[in-house]
Amino acid sequence: MTWNSYAERVLLSDGMAFCRTPDDTPSLPVIAFGCAMPTVLQATDRLGGFQRLDIVVIQGSGPAGLAATAVANLGGVDCVIVIDRFPERLALARRRGVRRRS
User: Fold this and answer.
1) Positive or negative CA dihedral for 60, 63, 65, 66?
2) What is the set of domains in the chain, with CATH numbers?
3) Within 10 A of 67 (CB to CB), how many other CB atoms are there?
4) Are 43 and 71 in contact (CB under 8 A)?
5) Rounded distance, CA 47 to CA 98, Å?
6) For residues 93 and 73, is the Cβ–Cβ distance under 8 A?
7) d(Cα 31, Cα 65) in Å, to the nearest integer?
8) Which pLDDT tens digit goes with each residue over 1-59?
């Protein structure tokens, strides 16, 4: 068994982070977010994190864009701007916290 596969049981190394999702959670969002969030966290770490006065521009409000929105908001950024050509995806980003603080 490996820790990077779909299985009923897996063997995790000591200190490895994990989370349990409720059994009734739909698979598709978990799969999408499970890939997007680690990508965004690693990118944010490589860039040195966020500062309150940063202006963060995110191109696209798919899984990675929504994960970036969440991370930027949790990082206390004053302004998060999301660019997307699909109005329904922008609406989802707004519901997930795209905002400007004064």
Assistant:
1) positive
2) 50-102 (3.40.50.720)
3) 24
4) no
5) 21
6) no
7) 15
8) 455 556 677 777 787 777 777 888 887 777 777 788 889 999 999 989 888 899 999 99
